[in-house]
Amino acid sequence: MKVHNFNAGPSVLPNEVLYKASKALIDFEGSGMSILEIGHRTAPFIAVMEEARSLVKELMQLDDDFEVLYLQGGATMQFMQVPMNLLDNSGTAAYVDTGVWSNKAIKEAKLFGYVDVVASSKESNYNHIPKQFTIPPQASYLHITTNNTIYGTQWQMTPVTDVPLIADMSSDIMSRSMDFNKYSLIYAGAQKNMGAAGATMVAIRKSMLGKVTRKIPSILDYKNHIENGSMLNTPPVFAVYISMLTLRWLKEQGGVSAIEQLNDKKAALLYDEIDHNPLFRGTVVKEDRSKMNACFVMDKPEMEEEFLKFCKKEDIVGIKGHRLSGGFRVSMYNALPYESVEVMVEAMKYFSLKKA
Amino acid sequence: MKVHNFNAGPSVLPNEVLYKASKALIDFEGSGMSILEIGHRTAPFIAVMEEARSLVKELMQLDDDFEVLYLQGGATMQFMQVPMNLLDNSGTAAYVDTGVWSNKAIKEAKLFGYVDVVASSKESNYNHIPKQFTIPPQASYLHITTNNTIYGTQWQMTPVTDVPLIADMSSDIMSRSMDFNKYSLIYAGAQKNMGAAGATMVAIRKSMLGKVTRKIPSILDYKNHIENGSMLNTPPVFAVYISMLTLRWLKEQGGVSAIEQLNDKKAALLYDEIDHNPLFRGTVVKEDRSKMNACFVMDKPEMEEEFLKFCKKEDIVGIKGHRLSGGFRVSMYNALPYESVEVMVEAMKYFSLKKA
């Protein structure tokens, strides 16, 4: 029996991925070894790594200038690795502040150059995405966080700019069709839509490299990872394998545009209930609502604990909101079945009737 | 059917660990979720992380000044993270060069301060561990690589010094009794004796911190990881879980001193054959031989390919030597059964008789 898993990440994965991985843990493709026991420089693992990298390019339709890497350390490592590689001491980087994760990225970038925070929605507790901002033309790049897991906002369009565009897409990567080629660097922790914790995907245009003068430690230099086929040192073998299986699954579902339709349906079902159920209220400006993480509260906050308990009995897991936004957060990543959202909505309806 | 897995790492793991993990991939402790699907800030995972950290302290008998962290990026990340945290721009660090991995550590340290390579066995192709060296008394630390996977050498004693001692123990951690408290920082990629690829264990004395003036990115600052209970950001959940299971298994075996006895027996059996079989010859000075990785060649190199093929038929895997040392490398980590070494030795005997 599986629960309805609305965790914000790590979160639900496709059953096919879990069953296949469970078998590979005992015997990987008839090798007499577990996937954990094979050498990372052997042909079977190199094939896994190459399939994962090429599935990213295929599913995101990235052009030839892009290289795809599987690194370690999560988006938090990228917060410092991006400016270390791309922002010179005398340079400027533009960042849009849309919440906790943008803020962390901004903090790390300041160690490497001048950071121009061109817009922020902080004053309204990050309940929307800033629309008006001016990017300094000399900026080395503009950094955005496409989906804000904690506050439940999401960029609905790609900013138009002449400077290279960089995005933390950890919590909405491959959940919707976008022209990913408008970006120069995209990074994402794998543990939401791309697999499990322990791997970070970085897609970077080779033309972005070689522009800073500082000396970069080997393990933090994108160039080294590219030259070594994302195997500069022992990669997180199992996490890459899980990502490869998850991307294969996504391709079998019809790819990004097909999963987007499902994600649209899931989000529509939930937000419709939030908007029509008198007990609940969304916390985010409608036009900027995230289809991955729906944040909402109850008009009577004293009922929230009771609703949480009620949901727990219905095998609904992971809906408590982040302490910074309160209430509830229902995460609906690619692998979350439509049926789980139906169960969630039924729970909201039933609880509301009970209280009427 | 399992093969005899002599891979240098990732390598063989205990069957109990693999079976338990395989089940947890489908349902983790009756949660209705896979271990890959649980939130890392939930009680069940915090318990895993804390058990792993405390098992390290218990098995290594570390004193209270030590903090144990599970980080990402492998030993290669530590090559730069150690000097970034502990070597000031104006400071000196002493390194002993015993092979490829020491060299990589030295290269990264040079980005942060002055590096004094106090000894090297490079001129004899790293076939021994240097015994005579002088450590500058003002050095911030002395760094050694306790076991050299590529060349098959191992430090048989801990250097006596007044400066803080730091060791890369990736390939022999917890394989033998040592006074680990003589060290100030110990790091190890988990994928040999402590689990699977994707987690790096760092045991550090708190008293080592706060001595450098440079600004350290958040994710690279040991202090941040300590303050956050090794959960500064999403940890590599599954890799930590596998490490916890592997350490539990080690404890059930009787801990480090018990596994040392088994490792001694395995190494004695193999080296005895190397020394008595006329076809084979060890490449390392006897007193510095590694009990984890035995390196040897054939007097008639043209036979090596044939022997490799013969071994393959016997389900012997992973014995081809690193290109830098040639011949064969037989890795015998904690989880390698004694029986596998018996099979290896039988193959050497049989091949030798066939050729006589």
Automatic annotation (TrEMBL), chains A, B:
Reaction(s) the record says it catalyses: 4-(phosphooxy)-L-threonine + 2-oxoglutarate = (R)-3-hydroxy-2-oxo-4-phosphooxybutanoate + L-glutamate; O-phospho-L-serine + 2-oxoglutarate = 3-phosphooxypyruvate + L-glutamate
UniProt keyword Ubl conjugation present: no
Cofactor: pyridoxal 5'-phosphate
Chief place where the protein resides: cytoplasm
Binding-site residues for L-glutamate, renumbered to this chain: 41
Keyword Cytoplasm appears in the UniProt entry: yes
Note on cofactor: Binds 1 pyridoxal phosphate per subunit.
Pathways involved: Cofactor biosynthesis; pyridoxine 5'-phosphate biosynthesis; pyridoxine 5'-phosphate from D-erythrose 4-phosphate: step 3/5; Amino-acid biosynthesis; L-serine biosynthesis; L-serine from 3-phospho-D-glycerate: step 2/3
Modified residues (N6-(pyridoxal phosphate)lysine): 192
Gene Ontology MF annotations: O-phospho-L-serine:2-oxoglutarate aminotransferase activity; pyridoxal phosphate binding
Pfam families reported in the protein's UniProt record: Aminotran_5 (PF00266)
Function: Catalyzes the reversible conversion of 3-phosphohydroxypyruvate to phosphoserine and of 3-hydroxy-2-oxo-4-phosphonooxybutanoate to phosphohydroxythreonine.
Stated family: Belongs to the class-V pyridoxal-phosphate-dependent aminotransferase family. SerC subfamily.
Classification via NCBIfam families: PRK05355.1, serC_1
Name this polypeptide is given: Phosphoserine aminotransferase
Gene for this chain: serC
